[in-house]
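Z., the sequence and structure:
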Amino acid sequence: MPATLTPITGDGTVPTGGTANQVLQKTSGTNYAVGWITPATGGNVSTSGTITTGQVPRWASATTIESVPLDTHDDGVATVGLIKRDAANSRVIVTDNSANWDTAYTDRNKWDGGATGLTAATGRASLGFADPGAAGGILRSNGTIWARVTFATFQSVSGQNPTGTTSTTAVMMGLGGVATITPTASGKVLITVSGNVANNNASGGAQFNLRWQTGTAPTNGAAGTGTVLGSTQQRGLMSAGAAVPFSISGYLTGLGVGTAYWMDLSLSNGSSTGTATVTSVFITAMELP
């Protein structure tokens, strides 16, 4: 048989009365002291506009929620671009340069030979390097960028046999007309002159110097001129006509770039008699870094 429900009255029972949707609430600290109340509704909140699939809710006011597209949800930002937080802790829109990032990634191998398409001249310019130019050039800092320079090289003048002299004071051998150098970068030049020196008089002697200067080179037999490089070289008590080898070198600094300089030997027979000569003269000059 079905069970029969018997209403319970008294303490512990549900109070009578109340209306639909009300709830029980303690009315005092006394046991079983409860009563019917209407619950709070949480404020007067309403919706605004049409709710659309894929959109998100946003507070339009203190009491209204609206449906908005996702791209306008973050602080109301609707401009095309990338969101960035600034120093004021606000969100701002910056230009979308992601295509440039993609290009940088694609082109990354061009610098190590991993891909073709690198414009070498543009790359050198962006790194502060000059065009390589002719073979033999090197990179040299000018204090601002690495610039291409080619050092001047006077290879050689060989087999020179200038007319000798009987003068007891130095006269020029006239080699400067063919022995010249024009510095192009550093103005530092190493000069080497070698050959044979002799005197046609028994026990004769000779004195000679390496000289240099700008302007018109002196001719053979002209009085000693120019700047002496190094000390005076001397050979004495030589057999008549006997050729004695010699080699002298000098290092010049501070020469003007773009200026031509001649190189020559000055010669005398010193205090002896006879004719002093230099033969098979070989001259080299090279600009150094």
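Residues 52 and 99 are 32 Å apart (CA to CA). The longest strand covers residues 276-288.

Let me know what you think.
H.
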